[in-house]
Amino acid sequence: MRVLSVLVATLALGFALSGCGAGDAVDEGPFGYDASQPLAFADAGVVDPNYPLAVHDVSYAVGEGRVEAFLIVPPGGGPWPAAIYVHGSGSDRLSMLGPATWLAARGAVTLAISAPSGSAGAAGGAGVDRLVEHRQLEVGDVVAVRRAIDLLRERDDVDPERIAYIGWSAGARTGSILAGVEPRLHSLVLIAPGAAPVSEFVDEAAPEDREAVRDLMSAIDPLSYIAQADAERLFIQEGENDGVIPRTAIDALIGAAPDGTQVRWYEADHALGPQAYEEHLDWLQERLGITGPPVQGAQTGPTG
Q1: Cβ-Cβ contacts under 8 Å for 293 (sequence gap 6 or more)
Q2: What contacts 13, CB < 8 A, 6 or more positions away?
Q3: What region does 78 belong to: left with phi over 0, alpha with psi -120 to 50, or beta?
Q4: Phi, psi at residue 262, to the nearest 5°?
Q5: What integer pLDDT is reported at residue 42 of this predicted model?
Q6: Rounded to an integer, what distance in angstroms lies between the CA atom of residue 249 and that of residue 134?
Q7: What integer pLDDT is reported at residue 7 of this predicted model?
Q8: What pLDDT sits at residue 128?
């Protein structure tokens, strides 16, 4: 069964209808991790041998758990630039498989991961306990991406100096943090991101909890982390008609981004649609220095 060709075509139809240098990982702060831990990389094989890109069903270790991913490799030996794709809330690696194949078809190794938070279930606590759980999930997602960078940098077919990140919705929120804490990422595309200021969480907390809430949320505040980023590495895409992320949260994140950050607005909803994907694919191709011909028979974007 031609799983990949069917999936990519379906994704494109859905769009049509809906209208820094590399450094060593820092093992400190809330997003620190043990970089010496074995990745225990596992490859269950190619999911569709008929597709012109090799799409591997893989997983790797993060702490005591494992992260599932699709690793997409173009034909040839590289070294290729690479990119990590992270989905929105309530989804998994499958939702970003189509976009990951589009960049791979242009000449990159891509990795679409299932963020650990996606399988964590609904938070069970209340008040401060709920925020503690939220912080743990946020940290887990960021560390999962940092381990994905470790994985890609170990590969002989990847250029370790050219690794990008693409995140949509909740994945874009994760990317906002990574923009400030992960210098090994060459470029970041944040699709429909947003984040409320810490002060909003504090104001909503009971008076006796406000100090604890401020400490908890400040440690994972996307607004403070994106402010530390290099504007040249960032591309933010937003929909004028986004009905999922509050406009105040969108404006807060864009306002926190460093001066010179490229921001593009679209007459679109939260999904944004094909124009946004074509534009950030072109931006990544230029940023990452992808100059070779596309992979014959593989789709290079939502419209072709």
Answers
A1: none
A2: none
A3: left
A4: -80, 120
A5: 98
A6: 17
A7: 41
A8: 82
- DSSP letter (8 states) at residue 294: P
Residue 174 contacts by C-beta under 8 Å, 6 or more apart in sequence? 86, 115, 138, 141, 142, 145, 167
Tens digits of per-residue pLDDT, 191-245? 999 999 999 999 999 999 999 999 999 999 999 999 999 999 999 999 999 999 9
Q: What is the pLDDT of residue 127?
A: 73
- Which residue from 303, 270, 192, 177 is spatially nearest to 228, judged by alpha carbons? 177
Q: Domain 3-287 - what CATH class?
A: alpha beta
How far is it, in rounded angstroms, from Cα 244 to Cα 175?
Answer: 18
- Amino acid residing at 259: D
- Give the Cα separation of 101 and 4 in Å (integer): 9
CB 221 within 8 A of CB 30: no
CA 54 – CA 71 distance, rounded (Å): 8
Which residues are CB-contacts of 129 (< 8 A; sequence separation ≥ 6)? none
Positions in the chain short of pLDDT 70: 1-28, 120-126, 304
Instruction: Find where tokens 């279930």 sit.
Output: 121
Residue ranges covered by each domain of the chain: 3-287
Q: According to the model, what pLDDT value does residue 221 have?
A: 96
**CA–CA distance, 285 with 297 (Å, rounded to integer):** 19
The two beta strands, 54-62 and 65-73, are antiparallel
Q: Where are the beta strands (DSSP E) in the chain?
A: 42-46, 54-62, 65-73, 80-86, 109-113, 158-168, 187-191, 234-239, 262-266
| Integer Cα distance of 78 and 74 in angstroms | 9
Closest to 194 measured CA to CA, from 275, 116, 103, 89: 89
Measured between alpha carbons, how far is 194 from 191 in angstroms, rounded to an integer? 9
